[in-house]
Design goal:
- 2 copies of one chain form a homodimer.
- Chain A has about 325 residues and is α/β, with parallel strands linked by helices.
- Chain A has 12 helices and 11 strands.
- In chain A, strands 3-2-1-4-11-10-5-6-9-7-8 form an 11-stranded mixed β-sheet, sandwiched between helices.
- The two termini of chain A are about 40 Å apart.
- The model of chain A has no long low-confidence stretch (mean pLDDT about 95).
- At the A-B interface, helix 8 and helix 9 of A face helix 8 and helix 9 of B.
Chain lengths: ~325, ~325
C-alpha cells in the first residue's frame, strides 16, 4: 500500500482537521498514513489506528513564521520530519497544509532537487471550459525568475500533464500580454526562445483568457504573475457570486430562479473549490510533495492525500526526472 | 459645448459603427463632434450634420499594422489628425477605436506628456463588490516598467479617482503576490518605497482579490501584469457563464430557473461589458484621449465620447498636471 506522511501540525485547523482527513483515507484502506506531530495533541482526535502510524515531534512551524527562520531553527519540526521520512524511503509522499514557504524550503532542502531543476515550482490545477483541467505553474513559489527557470517550468508542466493527466501531447504556453512574438516582457521573450527548442507542443505566448477557455493544458509564468492570476480568478468568481446573491435578495422572481438553479451554483462552487483538488504539487523536488491551502479542512486533506497517491502511482517524479535528463543531454 | 474629435476610420467596425455612435451623441446635443477620416466613406452613414463636422483625411492606420510603422509613415492619418486638432485647441478630447498601440504612440507624440510623467498609462474602470468602481493602471501600455513608472501610475491613478470618480481619499495599492512587505518582486519593492513617500491613502501591496472586493480604488501594476489581470478576469467570467449555459441546456428545471434569473444575468453582463464603459483613458498625455476596444459598436463609441466629455468637465488633465507638479516640487 502506498504510504504517505502527513504533517499533523500544519494548517489553520491543525491538528483536528488534518487528523480527520488522514484517518478517513487510512480507514478506507486507500493509503497507509504516517501522522507526524505532537502525539499528545493529535491522539485525542483519532478513533483508531487502522493503516495509521504516528511519529512524535513536538516542534511545529508556525503559520506566519518567516520561512527562513523555520529553515534555520526547526529542522526537527513535524513538517521537516515528514520530508525526512520521505527522503529515507519510509514514505512515498508528503502532504502539508502548514506554512507554504517553509514547506517549499524544507522540501527542497531535505528531498533535494531533480537534476536539471534550478527552481521547483508550485503547480495548480484548475477547471476550464469543456472537459479536463489545465495547470498553471509557477503559482507563487518563485517571484523573481530568470528565463531558464520558466523554460524548466515548461518541461516540468509538460511532464506533469503527460504522466498525471494522461495528455499525449500537452499544449504548453507562456502567459503573456498578447499572442504575437512582439508581445511579452524581457523575461518571457528569452524564455520563449529557450522553450521553442524543446520540441514540445508549444503554443508560444498565450493570453489570460487561454487559462480557462480550453486552449491550453499547461500555462507557464513566474510565481509573481502566477499568484496574481490565481487571486484575480478568485476575485472575479467572488464578484460574480456576490452580484447574484445581492440580486436574488432583491427580487422574489430571482429568488425562485435561484432555487431552481441551485444545483448548478453548487456544482460550480465544487468545481472551483480548492478543497476538492486538495492541494498543489511542488514540481522539481526529488519526491512527491503536496502543499495544501492553510485553511484546509478534513475533505481538503483527504483529497490532497489521494492526489499524492495518484502522483506516486503515475510516477510523477520519474517522469519529470526523465524529461529533465532528455533535455539536458539534448543541449550538450 | 464640449467638442470632441472622433477617429472615424479606427476600429473593426469603422466607419459604420463609429459614425453612428458619434452621430447619436451629436444629435442628442451632448457634445459637438468632429469626425476625422475619409469623408467619402463616412458620409453614406450620416443622416444629418447637427453638431457634427467632418475633416477629410483619406489615410488610415490599419488595425494590425505595427505601431512603429504607423508612427513613422502615417502622421497624416485620421487618428493622428484627431490628436493634432486637440493639440491646436480645436477640440477638447479625442476618441479612437483604432490600433491601440498607434493611438497611444500618436497621443504621446502629438499631445506630448504632462511634465513629470515618463510613461502615460492606460487606466481601465471595472466593477467591484458593493458600490462604485475601481481602476487598474497600467492596463497594457507599458510592458517593461521601472519603479519610478509605477510610482507615477500611483499619482495619476490617485488624481483620476479623486477628480473623475469624486473619491476624497482614494485607496491606492500595488498589485502583488501578497500583502506583506516581504512579498512582491524587484520592481514592486522599489516602487513601494517611492509611493510610501507621497502621502497618498496608500495601502501598500494588495492582492488580486482586492481588485474586485471593494478594498481598493486604484490598483497599480506594470502593463504586462495589468493586461494579464484583465484577460484572466474575462476568462473567468467566460468560464462561469459557459458553465451555466451548458448546465441550463441539460436540465428543464435549470432552464426555468435561468428564465427567472435572466434579468440578473443580463444586468451582470452589462456591468462587465466594455461597451458600457466605452473606453479607457490614456493618463499622462497633455489632453484627454480615450482608447476604445477594437470591436467597439455604436453604443461603445457613444459611451466613450460621453466618458471623454466627463473627463473634460472634471478637469482630468489639470488634476494630473497639478499632482505631478506637487510631487515634483516636494522631491526637490
Amino acid at each position: 500500500m502506498i504510504r504517505i506522511a502527513v504533517d499533523g501540525m500544519g494548517g489553520d485547523f491543525a491538528p483536528l482537521e488534518i487528523v480527520k482527513g488522514a484517518q478517513s483515507v487510512a480507514r478506507d484502506g486507500l493509503a497507509s498514513i504516517v501522522l507526524v506531530g505532537d502525539v499528545e495533541k493529535m491522539k485525542p482526535h483519532l478513533t483508531d489506528n487502522v493503516n495509521l502510524d504516528m511519529v512524535h515531534t513536538p516542534v511545529c512551524v508556525e503559520m506566519h513564521e518567516a520561512p527562513s527562520n523555520a529553515l534555520r531553527k526547526k529542522r526537527d519540526s513535524s513538517m521537516n520530519r515528514a520530508f525526512e521520512l520521505h527522503k529515507a524511503g519510509e514514505v512515498d509522499a508528503v502532504v502539508s497544509a502548514g506554512n507554504s514557504g517553509a514547506a517549499m524550503g524544507f522540501a527542497i532542502f531535505t528531498l533535494g532537487r531533480i537534476p536539471g531543476v534550478d527552481r521547483p515550482a508550485i503547480a495548480t490545477i484548475h477547471p476550464r471550459i469543456g472537459d479536463g483541467v489545465s495547470i498553471l505553474l509557477d503559482a507563487g513559489g518563485n517571484v523573481d525568475c530568470r528565463p531558464a527557470h520558466l523554460a524548466q517550468f515548461a518541461l516540468m508542466g509538460n511532464a506533469f500533464a503527460a504522466s498525471v493527466l494522461g495528455i499525449a501531447s500537452p499544449r504548453v504556453g507562456i502567459l503573456s500580454n498578447g499572442e504575437e512574438e512582439t508581445k511579452g516582457n524581457e523575461l518571457t521573450r528569452e524564455a520563449h526562445t529557450l522553450i521553442k527548442q524543446f520540441g514540445l507542443n508549444y503554443l508560444g505566448y498565450v493570453e489570460g483568457t487561454d487559462m480557462y477557455n480550453g486552449r491550453t493544458d499547461v500555462v507557464v509564468s513566474d510565481g509573481f504573475v502566477g499568484n496574481i492570476a490565481l487571486k484575480i480568478s478568485e476575485g472575479v468568481a467572488d464578484l460574480i457570486f456576490a452580484f447574484f446573491k445581492e440580486g436574488i435578495q432583491k427580487s422574489q422572481k430571482a429568488k425562485i430562479g435561484y432555487v431552481l438553479l441551485k444545483d448548478l451554483f453548487k456544482e460550480f462552487q465544487k468545481k472551483a473549490d480548492y478543497s476538492e483538488t486538495g492541494g498543489a504539487p511542488l514540481l522539481g523536488v526529488d519526491g512527491v510533495s503536496i502543499i495544501c491551502h492553510g485553511k484546509s479542512n478534513e475533505k481538503a486533506i483527504r483529497n490532497a492525500i489521494l492526489l499524492a497517491k495518484k502522483f506516486v502511482e503515475k510516477g510523477l517524479t520519474k517522469s519529470i526526472s526523465k524529461t529533465m535528463q532528455d533535455h539536458q543531454s539534448s543541449r550538450k
